[in-house]
Amino acid sequence: MFSYHGFIEIYDIYDICDDLYFNTLSEVRHTHGEEIQKWVNEWLTDSSFPGRGSGLADMRCINGSQVVTINGCRNHENGVIAKLVDFYRTVSEKAPGSFGLLYVRDGESSDESNEYQVYVMAKGRVEKRKDFYLSPCTPTIE
């Protein structure tokens, strides 16, 4: 079994106290928002896209913030991690103030089958880290 769970809160800049914040936020919603929404739509509808039919992807404005949520469970990983991490990196490059987490677990991975891996997006970077909250999965959650 392969599972993934994540979120991204989209901001163009790091500091919400910056004078440019209010101008750039509306720009993010109109330019980057359309591009990100296109990816979310592909995730849900394109038959060649690796997440189709096995998960949820959504982007909506919540209390003034653009938020993407991604969740799914598949029988096999089949390239989904690379596609998700690429999406997180693209968002972090286009809107470097964005932040989020992506938790993935690949039960078929010989090295990491008993643990979640966490991809952390912050300040224009996406880094892979070990999970200490749900891992090791046995005995922590199983």
Quick summary of this structure?
The protein is α+β, with helices and mostly antiparallel strands and 142 residues long.
Commentary on this structure:
The protein has 3 helices and 6 strands, in the order βαββαβββα. The chain is an alpha+beta fold and 142 residues long. It has one domain (2-140). A 6-stranded antiparallel β-sheet has the order 2-3-1-4-5-6, with helices on one face. The relative contact order is 0.20. The model is unreliable at 16-25 (pLDDT under 50).
Taking the sheet with the most strands, its summary is: 6 strands, antiparallel
Low-confidence stretches: 16-25
Number of helices, counting only DSSP H or I runs of 4 residues or more: 3
Strand order of the largest sheet: 2-3-1-4-5-6
Tally of structural domains:
1
Strand content: 25-35%
Evaluate the radius of gyration: 16 Å
The N- to C-terminal Cα distance equals: 14 Å
Query: How many strands appear in the DSSP assignment?
Result: 6
* Mean of all residue-level pLDDT scores: 77
Note the run of SSEs as H and E.
Answer: EHEEHEEEH
Structural class call reads alpha+beta
Instruction: Sum up the overall morphology in one term.
Output: globular
- The percent range for helix content is 25-40%
Present the secondary structure layout.
Blueprint: E1 2-10, H1 21-45, E2 55-62, E3 65-74, H2 80-94, E4 99-106, E5 117-122, E6 125-130, H3 137-140
Antiparallel strand pairs: 1-3, 1-4, 2-3, 4-5, 5-6
Please name the defining characteristics of this protein.
alpha+beta, 6-stranded antiparallel sheet, 3 helices, 6 strands
